[in-house]
Amino acid sequence: MGNTMTHVLNASQGSPAAAKTVQGFHVCEISGYSHHRERPGVSGRSPFFSVCGYEWQIMYFLRGLTDTSYKDYVGLCLQLQNKKDDTRVVASVKLSFVDLTGSSPHHTVTAKFDSGRNNRISCHLEFMKRSELEASPYLRGDRITVACHIAILKEAKNVADVAGKCLA
Fold first, then answer.
1. What is the rounded CA–CA span in Å between residue 129 and residue 107?
2. Which residues are CB-neighbours of 130 under 8 A, at least 6 positions away?
3. Burial environment of residue 17 by CB neighbours within 10 A (0 to 12, 13 to 18, 19 or more)
4. pLDDT at 145 over 90
5. Are the CB atoms for 144 and 33 separated by under 8 Å?
6. For all residues of the chain together, what is the average pLDDT?
7. Measured distance CA(64)–CA(75) in Å, rounded
8. Fewer CB within 10 A of the end CB, N or C, for the chain?
9. Rounded to an integer, what distance in angstroms lies between the CA atom of residue 103 and that of residue 126?
10. What is the C-alpha separation between 1 and 77, in angstroms, rounded?
């Protein structure tokens, strides 16, 4: 089966001392769409990537979830793979399908990620209707490019500690 995700870019991360938020960017390519769209459930995962000392991973659902209202959709989830002790991580997350031809704006979903509330995962199971994706410029050469932007808003040992420092 082989690796269907290719890590293309993990841009430099901001310095906690230089900004109020620390940001990171990751782009990956889902290749072999036509093969993977036939598999219900998790079709694949990106390689782990690091933002602010945390390991993240994108999971993709190219056939949606079988027997649910999401079965006609392509879904994306961002999962925090590691946490520092009992630290709560709050972040702004943008997941996008990228049009590499430049003819259309990115198809983007923005959400708040809070490891204290959502069990270290942010899912968008209705990211895009599969029929819309297949007719769009986001699917080219049996590939989809996914961009992920994460801005860590705060780290805290508990909810009351809003002045937590992000240790890269």
1. 12
2. 37, 62, 63, 64, 72, 73, 74
3. exposed
4. yes
5. yes
6. 76
7. 6
8. N
9. 23
10. 22
- Tell me the two tokens of residue 152: 């860590």
pLDDT at 109: 92
Q: What is the reported pLDDT for 51?
A: 81
Is the pTM of the predicted complex or chain greater than 0.90? Answer: no
In the numeric block, the tokens 């290719």 are attached to: 6
DSSP state, 65?
-
The one-letter amino acid code at 168 reads A
44-45/107-114 β-pairing: unpaired
CB 37 within 8 A of CB 62: yes
At 33, list the tokens.
């769409």
Helix, strand, or coil here: 35? helix
Dist. CA 89–CA 114, nearest whole Å: 6
